[in-house]
Each structure stands twice: as C-alpha cells, then as structure tokens.
From TrEMBL:
Membrane topology: Multi-pass membrane protein
InterPro entries recorded: LipidA_mod_glycosyltrf_83, RgtA/B/C-like
Principal place of residence: membrane
Record's protein name: Glycosyltransferase family 39 protein
Bilayer-crossing regions: 51-71, 83-105, 139-162, 174-194, 227-246, 258-276, 288-305, 312-335
Compartments reported by the entry: Cell membrane
Taxonomic source organism: Endozoicomonas gorgoniicola
Residue span(s) of domain Glycosyltransferase RgtA/B/C/D-like: 31-192
Amino acid sequence: MHLALASGLPLGVDEAHYALYALHPGLSYFDHPPMVGWLQWLIAPLGYNEFTIRLIPALLYALSSAVVLRLCKTMFNDESGRIGLVAVFLLNTAPILQLMGWGMVPDLPLMVVALLAVKVTWRLYLHNRVVDWMVLGGLYGLAGLSKYTALFLPIGLIGFMFQRLGWRWLRQPGPWLAAGIALILISPVLIWNFQHDWASFAYQLDRGIEVSAWSLKDALGMQAGQMLLYSLLAYVAGIAVVISVLRGRFPQEHRPAAWLIIWSAWPGLLVVAYSAGGDAVLPNWPAMMWTVLAPLSACWICLSWEKLWVKILTLVSSVLSVSIIAFVFAFLAFMPLSTFPFMKGAIKDLVGWKQAAIHARQLLEEVRQETGSDEPVLLVDNWVRASRIAWYAYPLPVQVISGRVSQFDFWYGRPDSDTRGILIRDNRSVPEDGRYEKSGIVCQLRDVLNTGVDGVEVNRFQFYYCDPALK
C-alpha cells in the first residue's frame, strides 16, 4: 500500500526537508544527525523522485516488523509466534507509524536500530560476550547518527544493568569498548557541532527539554494524542504491563525481559510527557519508545486475553485504528475533497507547492531579465515553507526570512535588508496595499496563484518582489 501510493503524491514538509539532506551531503545537520540524509543518498543511482524517496521508509517499516517478531521469540520464548504477531499488529495499527512508514523521517532508522539494540542487550545479559558489546556499540553509534532521542537507549541499558547486576558489570572492558565504538561512529555529529558552535545540540536542548511555563492541559493533550496515534490498545497495554511488573504480577520468567524493555522505553516516554506540558512536542518524538515497548505490551495482551475487557479493548482499538488508517490512505489515493471538505487543512502541505515553486522560478527569471542581474534569490518566511519550495526549485537557493536559525541558513545563507528576490507566501490574507515587510526586507505583491484539488481551492500563493529600493 505504501509503495502503491508512493509516486502519486507530492512530498510533504518533512519528506522534502530530509530529501534535501541528500542533495547537500554533510557530516551532520542543524535539525538532526545525518543518517536520514545518508540513507536517501543511497537511492541516488535510482534518481530522486517521489517513489524512490519513499522506497527506503517502506523497507525500514517492514524491517521493524520483522525485528519485532524475532525479538519476541528471543526475549519471551515465543515459539508459537503468538506474542510476535500481536506485537507486529500493534506496530501496524498505529496510525502515525503507518504514515511514517510512507514518508522518510529520522525516527524510522532509529526504530529499527533501537529494536536491534534491545535484542543485543538481552544477549549480553544472558551471555556477556565481548563481541556483543562491540555490536551494541555499533548499534548505539548508528542510533546516534539517526536522532538525538537515541540517548535514551544507553540510559535504559545503564538502568537495567545496575538493577540486575549492580556495579560489577562496569569492571569489565566490554561496556567501555562499546562506548568507544559508539563515540567513534557519532564523531561526524560531534565534529559538525564543534565546527558550528554546537548549534544543533543547543537547538535540540532548547526545543525538547527546556520548559518555561508548565501546563497540565498541554501535557494531557499529548497523552490523548499518543492514545489515538499509537492506538488505544498499545497505550493501555503499555501502562498496564508496567503496573503488572511493579506489583509483582508478571510471570517470574519474563520479568528480566520486561525490565529491560521498561528501562529502554519509559524514561523517554516520561521526558516526552513532561516536555509536552511546557512546549509543543511533535507526536513522532516517542515513536522509538512505543516501538520498543510493543513486544512487552504484546506479551501482556496475550497473558491477559482471558479477560473480557481486554478483548473489548482490542476490538474497539482495532476498529478505530484501522478505520483511521483506511480513511487516510484512501483519501490520499483519491483526494475527494468535494466530498470531505473538512480534510482541506490536512492536505494543505501537499497541494500546489510544486506549481508554486515552478511559478516562482519563472518570476525570478523575469526579475533577472528586467534588472540584468543574477543576484535575486527565492525567499520564504518560514523553514516549513522552504522545504517544499527548495526541493521543487532545486538547485536555486532559498533563503528564510526569520529571526530563528534554520538549516537553510547553513545551506544558502541568511537574507538581510539588502536582499533582493521573489518571496513566496501561502497565507490566505494579503496586505491591502500589497506591501509586506519583515526583518527589514520590504516586498511588493507581484502575482497570485490559486491551487486546489477536486474543484476545491486549497492554497492561495502570493509572490512578492523584494528590493531595498522599495523602502
């Protein structure tokens, strides 16, 4: 289903942004570590288009299901495969994971690596071989190259090992060898940050951890969102199994495996829960944690299956999640907007951006001919808009008029009061006099482009000519 839809839809905000990573190879990036760009770069021989860009996400999502199936067999002696199939079911009935499996985001490689890291950690607990420590170090390095939330994986390892083995596990060379290997592998991220005044680290810390005014309403809203997006069944089972383990009601033979998964998933979930009360937290941030939690949640579901309320919960959750997934993918396939006008806002980021980028290029060429200069550039007033415009207008530089630093500042530089170019906006309102000013840059409306689907207007793009002479 993912591959069938891959070539029929334009790229979304994140997809276009990470696809640009592959067109600007680097040690790392302002927004994220480089793995998502490196993986996209692998498809270069196939060409860069909507289908090839969505090929790797589909493969990674399928791989996560395969690893979960194997993980359940290894950790919970799931010879029948029942627990593994339930875990795969949890992953594939999570609406947000289905969407992530269709579009490339850093969480996808992290999910696969995190599951493998948990599997290797379990082998270490059972056998404690140096070769497994080396493999774990390699996996931690790959996780660190994928996304900064990978930090919760070694935190989980440390918590689990101290709980089960005390201090003695640190007296062997294995953990230090693993740490050294991981450090070497994530050196591109460290080097990039060192070269750029630790810009990426500072940005992520401020974005994900720092809380100014905490709101219970926002925190509960994030919990409700996770309940819907990761499925009601996965949410309830993930909490219920922790309560069961803490109260000593979980089977004794499965408790070590349960604690390993709890330590690997729940510190991150708790940090996300707290951070959501102070600032906007994107729903994909806890994807790694819910994926790692799936085998344990599946085990609890199987052990509790004789309870009527668990069967009812499973039925209600499955109908709800599958209905959401089916509706979203059916809508994306056919986009019957005249029948479902309330979906207009949901596809705003997909519709018309290619046309807008092409039109902006034409206007830019007109300006260059009028002025006899190659100086003008394309401008946007937000990095979210910049991703699609820069992708479809590549290789033209796209600068962002904003008081905040973005990845585009490192690629194309920051505009100033002397910058000249074509500004693209998608706001519904247009200044009465057609004059727009921001950060000392003054622009005059030059053209408007309306785009839509199924006879319904979705986006209205405005194109402004910006020039210091307009001041």
